[in-house]
Amino acid sequence: MLDDDELFRLIKGDGTSRDDAIAQLRAILLRGLSKSLNNRYGKPFHAEDIVQDALMKVLGSLDKFEGRSKFTTWAMTIATRIGISALRRKYHQDVSMTAFDRDEGHAMEIAIAVEPNLPNAESRAQVFSVLQKLIDTELTDKQRLATRAFLSNFATDEIAEQLSMNRNAVYKLIHDARQKLKDGFVRAGLTSDDIFEALASGSK
Asked: What pLDDT is recorded for position 13?
């Protein structure tokens, strides 16, 4: 079993040693995804279905690894994000957007894997806490439903269908909601850099 530094070095290289290192990384991701996402949303999770997509994403993003955390932790964060997004797409096929009605107590869950040893975990938590509060207090009921669904990976067409609106109306609804949220972030003292860094870290 290669240690973390050696694993990253070989994966960045070429030849048969690289192939063996990639196989080890794939096994790590498969084991981690199976453990962390199984039975999420009350359904079994088959990591084999998405581990290859996760592995390709990691391999295509190697230049973005800055060494501020363990390589396998960084790779697992990417893989978990992809796995959560895949689960949500399947889950949303059978879920009504009324589940995002605040009165029913169903909280929005943005696709984000927070690892406490990642350097920006605290700033992400702050941004998402403010975001949740602004959505609850600043948006109309319809804007709130659409925004929660949009940030939880509902497709625009699905939002339009469930709200009995056309696509253009949904775009306008979300645009107006985003402007309100942007103004709220400014009042909270958060810059656009803070927001975009957090959203980029939490996006699929």
From this structure: 87
Q: Closest by alpha carbon to 61, among 75, 77, 47?
A: 75
Which pLDDT score, from 0 to 100, does residue 40 have?
66
pLDDT along the chain (204 residues), means of 10: 90 87 94 80 71 91 90 92 75 56 45 44 72 89 86 77 88 91 86 60 41
**Paired tokens of 43:** 């359904």
Is pTM, for the whole model, over 0.85? no
Residue 132 and residue 40 share a domain: no
Report whether 202 contacts 128 (CB < 8 A): yes
- Whether residues 85 and 121 share a domain: the answer is no
* Residues spanned by the domain of 83: 4-92
pLDDT (0 to 100) of residue 42? 60
Q: What is the DSSP string of 148-201?
A: HHHHTT--HHHHHHHTT--HHHHHHHHHHHHHHHHHHHHHTT--HHHHHHHHHH
Asked whether residue 44 falls in the same domain as residue 115, the answer is no
Determine whether 57 is exposed, middle or buried from the number of CB atoms within 10 Å of its CB (0-12, 13-18, 19+). Answer: middle
How many separate domains does the chain show?
2
Residues 120 and 82 in one domain: no
Hey, is 69 helix, strand or coil? coil
CATH number (domain holding residue 170): 1.10.10.10
- Nearby residues of 6 by Cβ (< 8 Å), 6 or more positions away: 21
